[in-house]
Each structure stands twice: as structure tokens, then as C-alpha cells.
Amino acid sequence: MEEFDEFENYLYFILGRSKNTVNSYINDLKDIRDMLESAGKSFDNFEDTDIQEIINKMKDLYDATSINRKLSALRTYLKFLSRQKGKTELLKKIKKIKNMKDSRKIPSVPDEQTVISKIEGIELNGFENIRDRLILELLYGSGLRVSELVNLKLSDITEKDIIKIEGKGKKERFVPISSEAKRIIPMYIEERRKLSPKTDHIIINRKGKKITRQGIWLILKKYGFYPHLLRHSFATHLIKRGMNIRNIQVMLGHSNLSTTEIYTKIAPDVLRETVMRSHPLSRMKPRIRKEPSST
Predict the structure, then answer these.
(1) What gap in Å lies between CA 44 and CA 25, rounded to an integer?
(2) Which of 50, 79, 191, 198 is close enough to 127 for a disulfide, judged by CB 3.0 to 4.6 Å?
(3) Could you give the residue numbers annotated as active site?
(4) What is the topology classification, in CATH, of domain 5-94?
(5) Which CATH topology does 112-276 take?
(6) Angle, vertex CA 234, rays to CA 233 and CA 240, nearest 5
């Protein structure tokens, strides 16, 4: 039996959670487990300080909402172990960990030229370079989440230079790819074929297997990026160029416009200029008021 199978059944049949929620819980737990093990810690016997160290690392990868969701999944799992298995020690330790405050602030992002220079600085020779370049092109050029990128399949690329994305809650959306990504994809597919891939997922490792999210993080770190920085840069740079916020909402796959609106805090001057340039009232010539004639 897999490590989380019993917990999965507990979520379904005891707590009555939906399939999407259960999948999110399991994925979040696996992320925490993998990060603990990468740090030489045990998922079955950790200290509260170990979790705090993991949280500090996650700050470079996730926003506060995502980190708190992962902590919630961990707490639920440890409550399950306490109630169903009589294992209470880990639950006591996790109680010392507090949720992060969600300031709803977007981190500062590099300017367009800085991002483009780093991406274009990757030479298109050899499997790893071409793959890494494509990863950056898709994350920055199409605003994908890392989870969406690792699950992207060859069949998701349409003939019209559009990719089909399965986002949160299994919701599908279609986003365009950049002309540069379009140029690189055939090059990458050719290099990918040489590795006799064992999956139809687009992004693979040198063993021909589907790459993991942690694998993506390590690649991005090599170039001075992290996942959310590229996604933030994508949205911020589009807003600065005057793109309609609802179009950005669709591209990012946000269910609520309020989630996308936080990007408007970054460039209020740009938004004001866009309104002044685009709004009908801004195009009207000022009327000259006539002074009443004296009689």
C-alpha cells in the first residue's frame, strides 16, 4: 500500500472531501516529504525546526497562500495519524508552527530586458540547454504554473500555436505560445526523441522520464529564477504594456478577478496612462467656456 493511501480514503470517506481537494492534499504532502528528505530529514520523525526550515525554503517558491495550504494538509494528515494510528508526537510539534501572513503583495520583478537577456543567454545546443530554454520560454512567455508545465503533454500543443492547459480544479484553458517557443519546440522534440522517452509528457529528464516540480526548481535556480518570479513577471510586464486585466486573468487561469487585480498595485502610473490613452472621455476635446457678455 502506498504511503498516503489510507489517508486518501480518510479524506474521501470520513471527511467527505472532493477529488480535487484530495489530490491537492496528497500533492502538498509529497512536496513537504520530498523537501524534508532532500534536506536529510525524515518525514516520519521530524522536528518543528525542520518544518520551519522547509517553510523558509518554500518562501522562494510559493506565496503565503500556497504555503499555508501545504501546512493545512500536513496538519490534517498528522491529525489522521493521531486519531487513527495513535501517533501524537508529530501533531504536538506541528502546533508550534504558525501560518504565514498573506500580505497579498507581489514581489518586485526584474525588468523585461533582464528577463529576456537571461533567457536568450542560454545557447540552443544539446538536450539540456534546449530543454531549459523551452522551460523558461513557456513559464515567462505563457505564464504557466510549474505544476501545469510538468503535466504538459505533446498532444496539448495544437496546430494553431496554442497549448491546452489543465489548471487548478481540472479546469482547461488555452494560451498562446511565443514565436520563440514555437521555433524551439521542434528543436527540443528532436533532442527529446534521442533519449527514447518513456512518457508523452513534454518536459523530461535525462532518463527520459517526466520531470518533477523539484527538477524544474533546480533548473530555474541555475538561471537565477524561481517559478513564481517568472509568472509574476509575465503578468506585470503585460499590465505595464496596457493589456486588459481580464485577458491576463484568462491567461493565468485565475478563477476570480480579485486574484489578478493584485498585479495592478505594481504599476498604478502605467494603469493611469492606459486609461488616459484609451478611455472615450480622455479623447474628448476640452470645451472652451464662453464668458457671459455684459449688457
Answers:
(1) 17
(2) 191
(3) 145, 168, 228, 231, 254, 263
(4) DNA polymerase; domain 1 (1.10.150)
(5) hpI Integrase; Chain A (1.10.443)
(6) 80
